[in-house]
Specification:
This protein has a single domain, classed as Up-down Bundle (Methane Monooxygenase Hydroxylase, Chain G, domain 1). Helix content is 57%, strand content 7%. It is mostly helical and 182 residues long. Strands 2-1-3 form a three-stranded antiparallel β-sheet.
Length: 182
């Protein structure tokens, strides 16, 4: 039971931390079960009131990619914490949400699957950044002792790990340095 609870904490921490670094507002993150989910990260909907079917252009596409990163981050963090904890049904709702988001921007199932794999790889890479992974660990530990964290508490925890009062901007890594991509 303890291992399952830890895996859930890492799953939800992954969502919350990646949301923070993707500049997506997190309202709360919890490992308290509800009727629908074992835990949940409630974050802002970046595509709310956006007409993506009519405008699948650059700004909306970037918002979609950030939202998909948040959706995929839970399972990727759980997998990184303990690959053996992952079950086929884990993250199914997250994957469905990510698939739905991507499908508005592409024209085929094959393209949707390829796009999702690319975004999944980006999330895995982001979680390998030492400062980001340390932050996931701290948030997961906090969720084990405080089953629900407010957005404010989450920011406090993240700032305590990274020492950063702001979220990284485009092209900036979690440690404040510019990215190595040209």
């Amino acid at each position: 039971m303890r291992a399952t609870r830890q895996a859930l904490a890492f799953h939800e921490a992954g969502h919350a931390v990646v949301a923070h670094f993707q500049r997506v507002t997190v309202r709360t993150v919890t490992v308290m079960p509800s009727e629908q989910f074992d835990g949940c990260c409630y974050s802002a909907n970046l595509l709310r009131n956006r007409h993506v079917d009519a405008d699948a252009g650059g700004a909306n596409r970037l918002r979609m990619e950030r939202s998909v990163a948040v959706a995929l981050a839970g399972l990727e963090a759980q997998r990184r914490f303990n690959p053996r904890s992952v079950r086929r049904h884990h993250g199914a709702h997250d994957w469905e949400r990510a698939t739905d988001l991507v499908s508005h921007f592409v024209s085929s199932t094959e393209e949707t699957e390829a796009y999702l794999r690319l975004l999944q790889l980006r999330v895995r890479t982001q979680l390998k950044v030492p400062a980001i992974w340390r932050t996931v660990e701290v948030v997961a530990r906090a969720l084990l002792s405080e089953p629900t964290l407010s957005g404010r508490r989450l920011k406090e925890l993240i700032q305590g790990v990274t020492g950063m009062a702001h979220q990284p901007q485009q092209g900036e890594t979690a440690d404040g340095r510019g990215s190595s991509r040209a």
